[in-house]
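hey team, just a heads up i'm posting the complex here instead of the shared drive bc the drive is being weird again. everything in one block, sequence lines first with there labels, then the predicted structure for the whole assembly after. its two chains so it's a bit long, scroll down
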Amino acid sequence: MSGTTPAQTTVLVEQKERPRPARAPKRRVHLPRKVLAWQLVLYAVLILLALVYITPFLVQVATGFKTNADATADPLSLIPNPFTVAAYERLFGSSDFPVWFMNSAIVTIFVTAGRVFFASLAGYALARLTFRGRGLIFAALIAVMAVPTVVLLIPKFLVINQLGIYDSYAGMILPLLVDAAGVFIMKNFFDSIPPSVEEQARIDGAGTFRVFWSVVLPMARPALITIVILSFQGSWNELSHFIVSTQSPALTTLTKGVASLASGQLSQGNEYPIKLAAAAIMTIPVAVMFFIFQRRIMNSSEGAVKE
Amino acid sequence: MTALATAPDAARQGGPRRAGSSGKGIRRGEAAAGWLFTLPVLVILGVFLLVPVLMALWVSFSDWTGRGSPLSPSVGFVGLDNYAEITTGGGLAERDFGTALRNNAWYVLLVVPLQTALSLFLALLVNRAVLRGRGFFRTAFYFPSVTSSVAITVLWLFLFSASGAVNEVLSWVGINGPNWFNEPSGVLHNILGAFGVTSGPAALTGNSFLGLSWWDWLAGPSVAMSAFMLMAVFTTSGTFMLLFLAGLQNIGGDVEEAAMMDGANAWQRFWRVTLPQLKPALFTVLTLGLIGCWQVFDQIYTGTQGGPGKTTVTPAYLSYESAFLSQEWGRGAAIAFVLFVIIVFFTILQRWVLRDRPVSRRRARQYEVHSTPRRKEAAR
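-- predicted structure starts here --
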């Protein structure tokens, strides 16, 4: 019973409100009481859910500024008492944290640049260039995407080891440099650009690479941004590949370092402020990226492919 | 597919030539360029994906111990021994593999439906045109998805610690929360225990599969694993919400309006109109969810490393542990390939379940009634 009442009122809401934005936005006041109540329930549910999603991160940031004792005694409070930056001082002053951060940054920059370049090259070729074997390459890429990454842990180590690039930047970066999904995003985008654009340049005598580099690529900005976001996020957050491709402390990335921080001291409990401070810092770059490109990420379905 | 893709290109290729450009045509060297452009991708994927998989397949049939090259002549071929050891060996290896499968099966069974339902619910809530602060809510729900699994796990270890935030919230309503990540007992066993059932019937305890008694298989996820499951739902619901949102935005409003005119209430419209049109999105979400859930690794590596009592060991982690920590490379590779087969099996199964069935006659007639007059109108 109670299930049908709100349902019917939603019908009302939608019927009444649809034409409104065009004319009189202020008539909300005259909504029937039932509708209003339903709206309130909706917002209450949304706000409650949003709190559940946001609170953990607020607790994370707050705990980074707490003392060990305060973090244990009052885990939920958002106001550190007393306020201290000891955790951050220890992270940056007397731990390998800066090295981890630098390694993550190096890997992320190279991987992102490589993925953007190679994915757009291959995507362009698959979308626009006619050559024998194109269908085969396409099919192979689809097959490759289906291989689950976790299955590749041991295989990757074997090959990296055989090639003699174990425990080096090459071993960390090279295998991540290409990503089949990125090729597909680029291919889809290039498919949507009218061919007449390039034909003009071709008639003017531009070679294939020239057409690609100076005509088509600049038009692909939305798709490129999508790939930048995905690769940045992917390589910054990557863990398993670094576990199997490196061992020396000098090559530890943030993910691997913070993981060792967490598991190494789990048995002793505690030390939460420093762990959470580390986790918070490693979240900052992706969070910044996220808020800069928020609109594009949120509309990724429309943004990259259409336009 | 090849024929479809090349046909229009061939036509295009003919075009400019006929237009009379000098000798070779302006599309000369295109084949070379095509290969050159795709070469980096092919080489890297070949070297770091195809070759490794073949090598690992070999290792799974060998007795390689991690010393020297797995391809050296001193490494012996042992056939299916590694596979036999984990499936019928009767020893610890089999029991561990069974435990890992049990843990992950429960994880999949509960996380996949939960994350799908929650993300669909969030998408429906947030998709409403009249909603104020849509952007804010979308951001809030999506944000956990962009953060790294390591950072989230560290946070989760804190939130779910014995005196952590979750237990503090539970204490408000009088619940004495467990020491989440140190609690190996199974949730279903605990529920049965609350009714006084502490040991299973002989039929369940007496028979076993992969070294675990049926009673143990039915223990449910451990309390520690439940915390990981909540984490999975928390971090993935945002991504999947976006996929559903994209699906919802592709649905034209007219079908919904038609249903509304026919007097369908919101509940009926959701089940009969919206959900069937969301099938592609639903398929994507379920597939990605299944694939992801069978690959749980980062969280376990960062958090509990399989403990307590091996109740958070997953096949992916077990494969890593066997190879890299115990130096049982053949066994580790074998586990990885079994896992691969499981994932492929479930993906195919799901594709089959959600396939487009031929429309029944009765249904078809319904559509005809609606569509025929419209077509006539268009013809006029």
